[in-house]
Amino acid sequence: MKNRTFLILIIIFVLILGFGTYYYLFIYNKPADNTVVIDNTDPKNTSKNPFSPFGNDQTSSSTNPDGSEPVSSNVDANNPNTTELPKLRLISADPVSGAVAISSASTTIIRYMDRGLGHIIETKTDGQDIVKVSNKTIPKIYQTIWARDGMSAFVKYIPESEDGFNEVVKTNYLYIVDPPKPKVTATSIGTSTSTLEEIPSNTLKDTFFSYVNPDMKNVVPAPTTVKEKAFAYLTNNDSGSTGYIYYPITDKFVQTFSSPLKNWNMFWADKNTILLANKATGYGLSTLFSYDITKKTTSRLFSGRGLTVLPNPDYKKIAYSVTSNNVLSLYIYDVTTKKSEKTILPTLTEKCVWGTRDTNSLYCGAPSNVPNAVFPDSWYKGINLFTDKIWRLDTETGETTLMGDLYALSKKSLDVINPTLDPKEGYMIFNDKHDMSLWSLELK
Fold first, then answer.
1. Average pLDDT in the chain
2. Structural domain contains residue 373
């Protein structure tokens, strides 16, 4: 009797186990026919290849060749053809001499100049519509200093010499030929409206050089407090150096100052103020001076070893970096109180840019570890390069926020130089000092 009862219990247990297995495999775990299964474990980093401007298709392998976890594409289940752009995007792998971000109501455009050929190219920050604006070849571009509207720039380049040896850097004004003039149609007596003709996005515009002064040094665009399109620049001569302001629309030159010294670093701080500092070196002191364009007066602000400076757009603060005992430090100077505060970021002002909307915000590329060296000299010479993270510093509260770990996002050592922001303060565009490639980091 006991054996029979035991046998019945075993049969019941086997039946329950079998039914449970069948239910799990064929009913409970079966996806619906119209279900798209997506791995969204890391929706912020969507590109298997972080150097692709448009991301890559979703990977199906369980591990990468180096043993790391794969990064999946963030695909919309309702539209599987869409892929979220990576936070850090490579704009141009080829060297770029200078870039500018231009914003409209609907989009932001990055316009840049190819360093090797001088072609002007633009793309949207969303990764769409890469367009060559001009294919005029201007070889050996060294630097491009854009106007805020992106329609003109000063270009430093090396023209071909007759003997092929005596090559000298020249600076000239370049402008993109304007589209057709607006058609003016009278709508009523004494009033009129203008409508621009639509120019196809694939139509190449030409560029022209205006030979203003080929021996310009240290060209800087006007600050936002100057409404006209203008540039300040220096020229060296036998008696020292002379400063000018050039207004390209009217082709007007205004001499601002003269100095018995040469090789100044110049910054146009506001409408009536130009800042001048002697060339920075960690082997000696540099001094920052303020020059009032209207009053023609000069004031000494402060000094420091290896001094580099960057005024903010409303000229209420000046970021500056100095080095002491091979320790690199970044400070914020208050123009009103004339007091300085040290930040926690060990970086150079050449790696920083002030906010376009919040002028108290300073965005900087800064390394986690700074080698023991003489700065900025060793960085200028390329002896010591950095692996940067992008930080936002609130200069009112001192709070710092990590905006992007560039190595984690790209798997490449990126050393930030020539940073700029779009007018909406949504993207930072910068060159990598290693190869002058151009990158864009979303700041949201």
1. 78
2. no
